[in-house]
Write a structure and sequence with these properties.
Blueprint lengths: L1 E12 L5 H6 L1 E11 L2 H6 L8 H13 L6 H12 L7 E7 L13 E7 L2
Antiparallel strand pairs: 1-2, 2-3, 3-4
Helix pairs in contact: 3-4
Length: about 120
């Protein structure tokens, strides 16, 4: 399986269990690895035979900016399901970063990583 990766997609969302997270929002960062077979697209040099990663990026940002959820696990699942709506995408790895998570000790990042597939 071939891989198309999008790294560092940024969007402001209102996700979290605390009221201030829902009210103020914060920046979330998303990394994606889309698993698909790109041979037909490469052979014919045809975008219609692969996934349009620009559209995927816009859709993922819309999910992050959309309906708030409590957990980044839920957000990652919604992103994965959106990616799998593209016919060419057979598998997706989603990493959601929450670099401004409400943690009381010094830290660099909080992430959830999930992998989902059609099978």
């Amino acid at each position: 399986m071939d891989r198309v990766a999008l790294r560092g997609l940024k969007a402001r969302g209102h996700h979290g269990v605390f009221a201030h997270e829902r009210e103020e929002g914060q920046t979330f960062v998303v990394d994606l690895v889309l698993g698909l077979d790109t041979r037909a697209a490469a052979a014919d040099d045809d975008l219609a035979k692969t996934v349009h990663y620009g559209i995927v990026a816009e859709e993922v940002v819309a999910v992050v900016q959309g309906e708030p959820v409590d957990l980044i696990e839920t957000l990652a699942e919604r992103i994965a399901q959106q990616c799998l709506k593209h016919e060419a995408v057979q598998e997706v790895e989603v990493v959601v970063h929450k670099p401004n998570a409400p943690i009381t000790v010094p830290f660099d990042d909080v992430t959830i990583t999930i992998t989902r597939s059609r099978a």
